[in-house]
Amino acid sequence: GGSWNGGPWFQYTTFNSNIPSNALVEAYMDQSGQLWFGSQLNGFFLRNSNGTYLHYNTNNSPLPDNTVQVIAQAQDGALWLGTFLGGAVRVVGANSVGDLSLMDRPALQVYPNPFADQIYVDLSEHQGNVNWEVSDLMGRSIIRGTSSGGGVSLLAVGQLYPGTYLLRTFGPLPSEAVRIVRY
Question: Which residues lie below 8 Å from residue 76, measured CB to CB, with a gap of 6+?
Answer without folding.
Answer: none
